[in-house]
Amino acid sequence: MQIAKNTVVTLHYEMFDADNTLLDKTEEPISYLHGGYDGIFPLVEEALQGKAVGDSIDVKMEPDDAFGTPEEELVRVEPLDVFPADVEVGMMFEADDPETGDVLLFRVTDIADGKAVVDANHPLAGLTIRFVAKVVEVRAASADEVSHGHAHGEHGHHH
Ligand SMILES: [Zn+2]
């Protein structure tokens, strides 16, 4: 079976930066619903279209096609007294975006002089990403999966 709209694709992947340093790899395969459901990077979907079990892809993505370009307004400096006493670099906090009302996930990136720098950019924002994947399984999606817009099952979405 070939990868086409409304198939569920299971794959293993590795992600590298521009220097070919490994950033991330699957321990367990992931599944997504193919066909423009925002289940995976659009360029990866494009490369996987028509592929079958055992096929591999190797896709290079500019930051805007991957995790985005870092935005300055997503970096904030806050007084330390708004944080718990045990705050340290690497901790994550949720905060509402006053403009959009969206919940943003901020990572503490620096603490100095009674202030903390928090950053809601994706940790991999700004990087050119090489995405290497191998197709493990392809199957037709169920009607439920198509109506939900995501894959169910062992490596898919759990309700
Ligand atoms: Zn669902």
TrEMBL record:
Protein's recorded name: Peptidyl-prolyl cis-trans isomerase
GO biological process: protein refolding
Keyword Chaperone among record annotations: yes
Family matches, as PANTHER family: FKBP-TYPE PEPTIDYL-PROLYL CIS-TRANS ISOMERASE SLYD
Function recorded in the entry: Also involved in hydrogenase metallocenter assembly, probably by participating in the nickel insertion step. This function in hydrogenase biosynthesis requires chaperone activity and the presence of the metal-binding domain, but not PPIase activity.
Subcellular location: Cytoplasm
Boundaries of every PPIase FKBP-type domain copy: 6-93
EC annotation from Swiss-Prot or TrEMBL: 5.2.1.8
Similarity-based family: Belongs to the FKBP-type PPIase family.
Keywords: Chaperone, Cytoplasm, Isomerase, Rotamase
Highest taxon above the source species: Bacteria
InterPro entries in alphabetical order: PPIase_dom_sf, PPIase_FKBP_dom
Keyword hit for Chaperone: yes
Listed SUPFAM superfamilies: FKBP-like (SSF54534)
Chemical reaction(s) catalysed: [protein]-peptidylproline (omega=180) = [protein]-peptidylproline (omega=0)
GO cellular component terms, semicolon-separated: cytoplasm
A GO term, aspect molecular function: peptidyl-prolyl cis-trans isomerase activity
